């Protein structure tokens, strides 16, 4: 019976299939204009300046929908965005800068831009204004200020003097700073669609005519200049809460989506995909070449993202994968190409030299203090640190062009790098082979522990590193353990979960850290202030140099000189050694051109305007 | 129609005859002996016992054992955390640490069979992968046994007490079960990890074990609820047996089949649970390894260095499969109503007998 | 009984209170929400720490903070329940409200299919105990049971998505594949039907050849690029369904049932073109409601023509057949949608996705295309979950059925001279379902908790993702929100299982304890 049924069904299928007409898929010739990008985290809000919303992906989306006076390219260098406006120092003493918005630009709702748009960033970054206007003291832990901004308490707030002055034609603001802030370009105020905020504060939920929008902006200006607490508080409420949405669809208030960037959010699914479409009125930055729609897809798992790339569901996968994942991406050629690079994060090993700042957990381990013994032991352990082997075995499989990093001040690609490494004294950690350095290190150790040898490591030390799921650190630690044993150190390399709470713990003699250069700042990147490092390291000379660096406008040569001084001290005192710059790997569909990731935020999408698909 | 009826009669008689054969076989044997005989006949289970036993022997003798001052060396030369030179010769371009295991005999490729230096290859920085897999298997089997033992014993005790006594004892214990069911195990792991650092695999096994009994206890309870209403329990009670005696001597032996199956399922589930936890970063952490942590650590290697992915996977599957088959065999063996499959000859014989009997009717 | 249920519900509330308090404090102890900030090197980090402490009320000790949270939940009694905000500043309630349907969509299909397949295969293996098929299925189900899901997912994505999409670019099947598929299908059918040696070979031959022929034709016509049944094949399949359903439910001897099922098949053919037109109508809801109503009314009425007595089983057969045939028609419509779906810009000829729950680029509006989109996104995760979860049902239903078949009442039924079909379907199967039901209840309710790993690998955002996210970022409000729901379902699943068990099996007196 079953047999017959099977037969019958088979015959019927055969007959019908015979009748069916074969259809061949027509070839598509038009080039794609939609690009899909993998994101590991979800969008949480459209206003990345709100405290706790300053997350990578929020920043990416915000930077695509808003342009300001500057942006970082992939060198990374700060680029003046003349399409939006220009700025210049109008007076050195007192230090005054004027910022001018180029006329003729409009927001995505058609409202013309002017310098009033810049004033809101003063409100959200200046603690003093917040207090004067009765919006709350941002440094008070008990109350949230009206503008719940993550920008308070920064360099801007420290150095700005008085209020910005608006020019008569309202296209320029002039801001005075208390000293010659070295990073003054970075302090340029960012534009916000204040008219939309004002309208929303007044209860509007649809786009308004240009005239009404202009009038709303005037009302904001009035509230700003008169410190109108009530109005500002209303705006603050909108600014702090209304943008914190992870869902955008047809029912979203369109005023929230007003921007001046090349792309505007069209839809967002909570924890899921975010779609942005071209802003037709965009003129505030470089011209967009071809991309019309951008989709960010949230994929948490690296393997899943790579497979999605292989399947053509996504065009770009930016990740920090394993060597195998890279090889897997390579194996997808020619459909996929790999664009490697570095992140603005560098791995380094720091040695504890004393009790950490702000803790009573006293450190008296082998590396403590400035005695010759401590110095020799610190030098020994850094000498024996197998930095080349780490690069070779752990970093190179991911980024074949990875290099050993020898300066704590500059990345290898920065102009000052070559000079500083020849003079800083780092050469004692790079001379010879690892074997010869290990021998030197052992000799240093033997001065104090004559019984020490490679087979009898007697100096017990403990390494702090975290995140047990981070296999790269585990491998690094395993390599380091084997190498420092050659110099007589017995290093405990058990990873610590919840390691951030142990950073000041005196049980640990040294630690792996990865620090982010979030911007190219003149103040340098080493935590050498006592409060800024966890190793209890302090040197008055370095602190003096930093105070100078932060207070004065110096030339590049002067800065390089100061950096060299700091680095020379650090190397002499053997407290920290850089290892490598974290590799970044981007798997890109081979048809997609123009992708040039930047190590700084918004890493991948900074030049989305240049992307295009080959036909 | 008549023919059909007759057919039926023959079948019934054949069944009776089969019964007779079974009864004859089990005559004069204790319950344990019967179970053992039945189990030994279950081919798949016997093969699995053999496989699992050899696997455990191989795995646990690979590394040396230290008993007091004496060290018994293992059969494998490397330790799992020993750093060795990364071998590249003979590997495809761009790949390091490929396996040296050669299973092709010399008359085919001329190189001959052999383990080589690193039969399973090496990881990224030069650890010998065979010793890592062995260590991982030791850890995983350890976790599995501890979970099986702890989860099994707590589950049986709680389930049997609550099913037997019912009333408030039952209510209390079952609410305790509910309570435990609702607490996610991952949380305990991360609390301990955060405050006390890495307590190692022993602790992991322990805390998973004391959370793993809820399903089993419900099952045992259900079985007890059913069995305590049976006549033989009434009979025992009338004969004056104590509660303890009824539970252990009368009910438990009848429930043992289902219990054993559940424990084997629990154990094979444990190995997967540990794998899943490792994938999420809550399982065995480096530098120690388990099969689960290896397979999740090297899941990207799937296309490039497949051996890093397949070896631990193969061990997981082998262990889980064997345990399940053993459980299956035990279940069949303990089921008093289950019969083994008769051989063709025996079947034919009983059928012939039945036919004769039917004809003579 | 009512009092018992109320009491149990009361206890559930107390249990949840206790475990939520414990969990809240444990979770608060499990890590440092300020971790990222503590190692941050931004200039205003102190400010940010202050802001976050304020937002998460970190200055309040956790045991007290728990009662703040509880206050929000208890205010549900007076109408406005407050689950609090997530760390990312969104109401927990919204997140969960969005996650539940996602999780349901992900797990319900897989669970239902696992139950259906698992129980069917379990029954077949039990009926053919110790046959080749039994051994093969035992091995396969244990094997699948032993696989880690992320492994299964990687393999499925590679073969069923990436390579299948590549295949669709040029949808011709190579002879090797046709050969392997034919051999496999031959072995499969031979094993499942079994019998004398000659019969096994015959079945192997027939199944193998017909598979080969079918695949060759599908390949030659590039059927996969533009699939569909067409009315004739649809009719053939419908007739197959008619016979199959009748055989299982009443036996082919019942000619009235067979006739009405066949009538349904004829109606399926006649209504083929009208249905196509109806599928295109813009007011979907009304039309579909009408179609479903018509389906049940017609299939309920047709049996009246053929029989005057004992109509119950006939109507049942007819409705089941009609339902399956309707399903077939819908499948046919979906197949016809396949080609336009592939041709949309959003899909661009790679229809099987490896991630996500819908294609975000697909314009809403076309019901069938969007429906198909949801289905293809379900395809891989459902398959993965199905593969690893159905083994349990196979083993359990096999074991239970074997036990039931050895019971005296089965012997009695056989002795009465009932047909084997009746003995299995009426007597054995129903009793097998009793313990299975309780297991299913617990399973279904616990899957709402989400499949953490499956969701992660397939990029779905359901309860599992929320749970994982909550634990990873020490987001207590979110964790507690997820917990309240899953904990409640987990605990009440046990209550429902208890109640069901004592209702279905009168021998068991579990229910009220002291009756």
Automatic annotation (TrEMBL), chain C:
Domain ABC transmembrane type-1 positions: 100-501
Membrane topology field: Multi-pass membrane protein
Keyword DNA-binding carried by entry: no
Key words of the record: Cell membrane, Membrane, Transmembrane, Transmembrane helix, Transport
Pfam families in UniProt: BPD_transp_1
Annotated GO CC locations: plasma membrane
Subcellular location: Cell membrane
Membrane-spanning residues: 9-27, 106-127, 139-156, 176-193, 200-220, 232-249, 256-274, 286-306, 313-331, 367-388, 434-458, 478-501
GO biological process: transmembrane transport
InterPro entries recorded: MetI-like, MetI-like_sf
Gene3D superfamilies for the chain: MetI-like
Name by which UniProt lists this protein: Unannotated protein
Organism: freshwater metagenome
Lineage summary: unclassified sequences, metagenomes, ecological metagenomes
């Amino acid at each position: 019976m079953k047999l017959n049924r099977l037969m019958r069904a088979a015959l019927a299928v055969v007959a019908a299939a015979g009748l069916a007409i074969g259809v061949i898929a027509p070839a598509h010739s038009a080039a794609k204009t939609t690009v899909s990008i993998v994101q590991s985290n979800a969008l949480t809000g459209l206003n990345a300046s709100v405290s706790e919303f300053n997350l990578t992906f929020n920043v990416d989306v915000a930077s695509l929908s808003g342009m300001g006076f500057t942006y970082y390219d992939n060198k990374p260098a700060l680029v003046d965005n003349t399409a939006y406006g220009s700025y210049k120092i109008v007076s050195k003493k007192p230090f005054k800068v004027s910022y001018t918005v180029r006329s003729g630009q409009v927001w995505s709702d058609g409202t013309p831009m002017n310098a009033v748009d810049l004033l809101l960033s003063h409100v959200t970054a200046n603690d003093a204004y917040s207090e004067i206007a009765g919006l709350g003291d941002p440094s008070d832990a008990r109350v949230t200020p009206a503008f719940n901004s993550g920008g308070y308490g920064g360099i801007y707030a420290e150095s700005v003097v008085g209020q910005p002055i608006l020019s008569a034609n309202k296209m320029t603001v002039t801001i005075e700073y208390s000293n010659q802030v070295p990073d003054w370009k970075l302090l340029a105020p960012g534009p916000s669609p204040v008219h939309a905020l004002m309208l929303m504060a007044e209860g509007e939920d649809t786009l308004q005519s240009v005239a009404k929008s202009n009038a709303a902006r005037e009302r904001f200006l009035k509230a700003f200049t008169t410190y109108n607490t009530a109005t500002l508080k209303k705006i603050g409420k909108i600014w702090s809460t209304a943008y914190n949405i992870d869902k955008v669809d047809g029912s979203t208030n369109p005023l929230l989506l007003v921007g001046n960037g090349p792309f505007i959010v069209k839809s967002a699914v909570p924890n899921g995909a975010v779609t942005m479409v071209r802003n037709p009125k965009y003129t505030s930055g470089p011209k967009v070449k071809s991309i019309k729609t951008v989709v960010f897809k949230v994929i948490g798992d690296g393997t899943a993202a790579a497979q999605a790339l292989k399947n053509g569901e996504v065009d770009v996968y930016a990740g920090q994968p394993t060597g195998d994942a890279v090889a897997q991406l390579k194996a997808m050629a020619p459909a996929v190409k790999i664009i490697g690079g570095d992140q603005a994060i560098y791995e380094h090993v720091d040695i504890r030299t004393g009790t950490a700042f702000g803790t009573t957990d006293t450190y008296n381990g082998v590396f403590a203090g400035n005695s010759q013994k401590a110095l020799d032991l610190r030098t020994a352990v850094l000498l024996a640190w197998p930095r080349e082997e780490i690069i070779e075995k752990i970093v190179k499989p991911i980024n074949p062009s990875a290099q050993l990093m020898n300066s704590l001040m500059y990345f290898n690609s920065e102009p000052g790098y070559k000079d500083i490494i020849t003079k800083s004294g780092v050469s004692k950690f790079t001379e010879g082979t690892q074997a010869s350095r290990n021998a030197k290190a052992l000799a240093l150790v033997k001065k104090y522990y004559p019984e020490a040898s490679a087979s009898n490591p007697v100096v017990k030390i403990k390494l702090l590193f975290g995140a047990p799921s981070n296999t790269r650190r585990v491998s690094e630690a395993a390599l380091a353990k084997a190498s420092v044993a050659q110099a007589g150190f017995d290093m405990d390399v058990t990873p610590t979960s919840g390691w951030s709470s142990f950073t000041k713990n005196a049980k640990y003699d040294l630690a792996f850290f990865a620090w982010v250069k979030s911007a190219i700042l003149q103040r340098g990147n080493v935590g050498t202030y006592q409060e800024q490092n966890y190793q209890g390291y302090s040197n008055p000379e370095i602190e003096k140099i930093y105070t100078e660096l932060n207070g004065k406008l110096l030339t590049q040569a002067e800065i390089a000189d100061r950096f060299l001084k700091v680095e020379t001290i650090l190397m002499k005192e053997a407290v920290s050694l850089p290892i490598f710059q974290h590799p970044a790997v981007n798997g890109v569909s081979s048809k997609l051109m123009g992708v040039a990731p930047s190590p700084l935020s918004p890493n991948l999408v900074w030049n989305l305007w240049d992307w295009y698909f080959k036909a | 129609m008549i023919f059909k009826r007759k057919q039926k009669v023959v079948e019934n008689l054949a069944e009776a005859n089969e019964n007779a054969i079974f009864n004859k076989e089990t005559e004069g044997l204790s319950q344990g002996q019967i179970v053992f005989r039945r189990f030994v006949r279950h081919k798949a289970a016997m093969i699995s016992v053999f496989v699992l036993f050899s696997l455990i022997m191989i795995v646990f003798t690979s590394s040396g054992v230290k008993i007091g001052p004496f060290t018994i060396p293992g059969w494998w030369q490397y330790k799992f955390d020993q750093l060795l030179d990364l071998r590249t010769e003979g590997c495809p371009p761009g790949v390091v640490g490929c396996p040296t295991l050669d299973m092709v005999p010399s008359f085919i490729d001329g190189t001959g069979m052999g383990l080589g230096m690193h039969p399973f290859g090496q990881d990224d920085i030069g650890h010998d992968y065979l010793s890592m897999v062995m260590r991982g298997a030791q850890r995983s089997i350890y976790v599995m046994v501890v979970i099986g033992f702890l989860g099994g014993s707590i589950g049986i005790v709680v389930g049997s007490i609550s099913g037997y006594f019912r009333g408030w004892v039952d209510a209390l214990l079952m609410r305790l079960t509910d309570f435990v069911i609702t607490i996610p195990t991952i949380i305990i792991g991360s609390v301990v990890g955060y405050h006390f650092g890495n307590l190692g695999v022993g602790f992991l096994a322990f805390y998973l074990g004391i959370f793993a009994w809820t399903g089993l206890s419900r099952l045992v309870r259900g079985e007890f609820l059913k069995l305590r209403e049976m006549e033989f329990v009434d009979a025992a009670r009338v004969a004056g047996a104590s509660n303890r005696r009824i539970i252990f001597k009368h009910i438990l032996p009848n429930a043992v089949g289902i219990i054993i199956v559940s424990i084997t399922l629990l154990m094979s589930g444990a190995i997967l649970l540990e794998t899943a936890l490792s994938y999420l970063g809550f399982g065995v952490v480096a530098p120690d390894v388990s099969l689960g942590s290896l397979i999740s650590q090297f899941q990207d290697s799937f296309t490039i260095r497949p051996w890093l992915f397949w070896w631990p996977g193969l061990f997981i599957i082998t262990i889980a499969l064997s345990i399940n088959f053993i459980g299956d065999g035990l279940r069949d063996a303990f089921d008093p109503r289950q019969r083994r499959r008769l051989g063709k000859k025996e079947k034919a014989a009983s059928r012939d007998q039945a036919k004769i009997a039917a004809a003579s009717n | 009984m009512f009092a018992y249920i109320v009491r149990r519900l009361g206890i559930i509330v107390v249990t949840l209170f206790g475990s939520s308090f414990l969990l809240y404090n444990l979770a608060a102890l499990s890590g440092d929400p300020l971790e990222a900030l503590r190692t941050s090197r931004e200039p205003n980090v102190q400010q940010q720490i202050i802001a976050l402490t304020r937002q998460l009320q970190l200055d309040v000790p956790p045991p007290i903070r728990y009662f703040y949270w509880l206050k929000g939940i208890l205010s549900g009694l007076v109408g406005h329940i407050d689950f609090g905000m997530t760390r990312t500043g969104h109401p927990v309630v919204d997140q969960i409200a969005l996650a539940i349907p996602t999780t349901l969509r992900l797990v319900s299909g897989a669970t239902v299919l696992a139950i259906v397949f698992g129980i069917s295969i379990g029954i077949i293996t039990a009926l053919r105990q110790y046959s080749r098929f039994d051994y093969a299925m035992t091995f396969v189900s244990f094997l699948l049971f032993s696989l880690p899901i992320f492994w299964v997912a990687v393999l499925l994505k590679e073969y069923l998505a990436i390579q299948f999409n590549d295949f669709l670019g040029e949808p011709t099947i190579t002879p090797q594949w046709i050969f392997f598929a034919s051999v496999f299908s031959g072995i499969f059918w031979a094993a499942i039907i079994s019998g004398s040696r000659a019969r096994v070979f015959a079945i192997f031959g027939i199944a193998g050849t017909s598979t080969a022929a079918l695949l060759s034709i599908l390949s030659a016509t590039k059927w996969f690029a533009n699939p569909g049944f067409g009315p004739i094949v649809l009719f053939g399949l419908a007739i197959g369904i008619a016979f199959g359903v009748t055989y299982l439910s009443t036996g082919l001897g019942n000619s009235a049932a067979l006739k009405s099922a066949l009538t349904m098949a004829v109606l399926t053919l006649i209504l083929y073109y009208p249905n196509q037109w109806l599928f295109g109508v813009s007011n979907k809801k009304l039309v579909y409601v009408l179609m479903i109503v018509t389906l049940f009314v017609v299939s309920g009425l047709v049996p009246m023509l053929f029989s005057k007595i004992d109509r119950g089983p006939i109507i049942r057969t007819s409705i089941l057949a009609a339902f399956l045939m309707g399903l077939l028609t819908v499948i046919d419509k979906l197949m016809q949608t396949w080609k336009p779906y592939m041709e949309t810009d959003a899909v661009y000829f790679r229809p099987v996705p490896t991630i996500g729950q819908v294609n975000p680029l697909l314009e809403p509006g076309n019901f069938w295309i969007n429906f198909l989109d949801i289905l293809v996104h379900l395809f891989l995760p459902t398959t993965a979950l199905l593969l690893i979860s159905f083994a349990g049902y196979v083993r359990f239903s096999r074991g239970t059925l074997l036990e039931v078949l050895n019971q005296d009442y089965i012997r009695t039924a056989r002795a009465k001279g009932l047909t084997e079909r009746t003995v299995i379907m009426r007597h054995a199967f129903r009793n097998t379902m009793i313990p299975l039901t309780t297991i299913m209840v617990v399973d279904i309710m616990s899957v709402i908790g989400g499949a953490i790993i499956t969701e992660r690998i397939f990029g779905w955002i359901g309860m599992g993702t929320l749970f994982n996210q909550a634990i990873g970022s020490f987001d207590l409000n979110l964790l507690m929100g997820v917990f309240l729901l899953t904990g409640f379902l987990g605990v009440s699943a046990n209550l429902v299982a208890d109640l069901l068990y004592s209702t279905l099996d009168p021998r068991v007196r579990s229910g009220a304890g002291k009756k």
